[in-house]
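Morning. Coffee machine broken again, so started the prediction first thing and wrote up yesterday's gels while waiting. Chain of 258 residues, entered below exactly as on the submission form.
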Amino acid sequence: MRLSDGAEAIRGDLPSSATREVPVPVEAGDALDTGIDRFSTLVMVRERLASLLRTTTTPVLTIGGDCGVSLASVEHAARQHPGELALVWLDAHPDLHTAETSPSGAFNGMVLRAIIGEGTDGLALTGDDRVPLERVILGGARDIDPAEAELIQERSVATLSIDDLTSPDVLVAAVRATGASSFYLHIDLDVLDPATLAGLADLMPFGLSLDALNRAITALRGEFTLAGATIAGFAPASPEAAADDLPSILRIIGALTR
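Came back before lunch.
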C-alpha cells in the first residue's frame, strides 16, 4: 500500500491530461503453482498495461508501483526499436532471480530476468520483444544475492558501481559499447542514497545522488534516443510524508521529459 500511495502522490503532481492510470487489483491473486506470488494478478496487470501502451508510438514514462511495471513497458519499447534498444537498469538490486532461485517468490526480484527472456511463461518476454543480456547495463546494484552474483559473473553482465555512475561518460560509454542507438531507462528509486530520498521500502546506504542521476539522464539523452523510462519504488511512510520527496522525484521526471 505504501507503493500505491507513492504512485498516487506522484500522479497528483503531474498534469492530469498527460497521465493514464492502469488499475492494479488489491486482491492477492494466485501463484498457480509457478512459485511467483500473485502470478495471476501480475499477468493481468501486464496485459492491461500492454493494451494501453499499444495506443501510442511515443516514449512513455511508466510510474509504479514496484519494478514489475517495467516488464510491459520495456516490451513495448523493444517493439518500437527492434534490435537497437539498450536497457539501463538503475537499481540497488539486480532483479535477476527466477522463481527457482528467489528467496521470496516476489516478482519484483525477477523482472530483469524476465525481460531478457528467462523465467516463467506468461511473464518472461520472448523473441524480439526481449532485450538480450548483452544490451543490458546494470547500475548501482549493491544488494546482490548469491544466485544473482553467480549469473552476473558467468554471463559477464555489464555492471556499473555507484562510483562509476558519478561520471556520465562511463555510463554513456557502456551504452555505446552495446551498439544500441536507443535506450530504455529503468530507475528504482532505491538506487538513490537514503539521504536524498526518504520514501523507500529498502533503505540502502551509499547510493547515488540526485544530481548524479540527473546528469546521467541528460548525458544519455544527448547521445541516444530515449525509448521510454520507469520510475519505481516510491514508498513514503504516509501520504503526508510523500510531500517531502516529491520535489526530488519531479526533478527526475523533468530530466526525462524536458
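Residues 242-257 form the longest helix (16 residues). Going to sketch it on the whiteboard this afternoon.
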